[in-house]
Design goal:
Helices cover 68% and strands 3% of the residues. With 151 residues, it is mainly alpha-helical. The radius of gyration is 22 Å and the shape is elongated. The chain has helices at 22-42, 44-53, 58-94, 114-148; strands at 96-97, 111-112.
Length: 151
Amino acid sequence: MTEPSPAEGDRSGKRAPHPLNPTFAVALVAALGCLLLALANLNQDRVVGWILEDPEHTATRMRMLLALLAVIAVLPVAFLSYFSGRMSMEVTRTGRYPPPSVALGRKVGLRKGTDAHAAARTLRFVSIMLGAIAVGIPVLFWWLAVTLTPQ
């Protein structure tokens, strides 16, 4: 009996790690974002009142709020960048897409060889672009803080 290749998976009876479901992860991040937007909408009058309460600290409070919004905006993008990069490495390592450690939300045909490596390159490109966006978001918020708040 021959050993199964890493691309085929190990069927020796060892329990495999729980597969990561990207559909669930994206849905969870989207639900968290919707919850944060709803909470912000409910408390908008309080937040604006807090910012304008003390004219001496208005600029500082505005910068703090923009920094918090930048962090909230960056987290899902950074997570998706990390996830895409991790999945790209897994596809490259196993030589198949989807890799055995990932459970996708819909049925996808198994790709092996050069097709799998093409999928890995696409995932790597998406990861790099999302990483660049994750870096650009705080820069944009910093520019807004400098531009919109009095010195």
